[in-house]
Amino acid sequence: MRVMSVSDRWLEILLAPARDGIPVAEVCRRYGISRQSFYEYRRRLWAEGTDGLQPRSRRPVRSPAQTAGEVESLIVRLRVDNPRWGARILRTKLKQAGLDPVPAVSTVHRVLKRHGLVTPQENRTPKAWKRFERQAPNDLWQIDGTQVALVDGSKAWIVDLIDDHARFSIGAHAVRRFTAQAAWAAMEKAVMEHGAPRQLISDNGLQFRSRKGQKPVHFQEKLSALGIRQLNSRPRHPQTCGKLERYHRTFKEYYADHGPAPSIEVLQDLCDAFRWHYNHERPHRSLQQQTPANVYNISRKASPLDSRRVRSAPRVLKVSSAGSVNFRKRKINVGQAYTGELVRIVEGPENVIIHHAGTGEILRQLVLGPVGTYHGSGAKRGRPPKTPVAG
């Protein structure tokens, strides 16, 4: 079998009419090509010689739908200045900067790939973890420590706390040794800044709890005095405190860019700077690209005095064409101005709060009426739906 290049093959086809004495239409039928292609390649052969028979790019000369050059430059500049930002965060920053229209996340990703700013990664099969989220800020905090290295190679610890509902970084305390006293120092400072949570969850480290049958450690005694209920994760199951584990990963990426710190004092300054960036500047994917500070501050906060547990996790619903949503077998009016938009419904101990899922704006606060009632915009409790009058 003789192997032929593309140009040799086309040269054989173009010479076939004169060589075999057959018309062009018969040549096209024999080789399975169109007459338009035959004449196009013949024109290229006469104009450019055999070099004109080489395959050419099919990319169009113009791409009217391609992202504008100034927008691409802005995306590239933001990525270069912030190498840890992905396409979702970059799109949120473009939107916050007032760009209109805002390119889609997929468009931003293609721009990054086009400029070689995306590192290829292996496709990972997502694990089907069972996710949970507390309904109100301060209903549950997570606490744990993570270890980092200083300039001289010595080790230091950071005791971190994060709010389960808003992913808000409650506190970060840099210490040399991770003891029960260090854990409580971080907890005490966080309580002074943000109030006491209703519950606190940690792993089974001896900093947080005593062994079975032994006297409670310092940390347990202090929690009990404040009325905070202590929970512990299952042994060898870090996913229970997964939000804090993911926070540690994000901090260590930041520390790799800005560290290592020469002392505990400088490490504490880095922790404080990162907390501000994480809480107030960095959009969070699980919060619909809102910042943790925005979500933490818009809702009523739980406390150890709350005797009634939160009933369920927040729900995100789409507003119908009538301007309402169906929640717990009740129809709640939100307003036709929000038709087709997503709202986040938070059910607290006493009332229900409806937020706009995108902006975090509080749209309604109400007390649920009986099942099957309609909650209009003017009533605190629901009223029975209208029933047709029998004729």
Automatic annotation (TrEMBL):
It comes from the Bacteria. One of its GO terms (biological process) is DNA integration. Residues 133-300 form the Integrase catalytic domain. GO terms for molecular function: nucleic acid binding. InterPro entries: Homeodomain-like_sf (IPR009057), Integrase_cat-core (IPR001584), IS481-like_transpos (IPR047656), RNaseH-like_sf (IPR012337), RNaseH_sf (IPR036397), WH-like_DNA-bd_sf (IPR036388). This is IS481 family transposase. It comes from Arthrobacter oryzae.
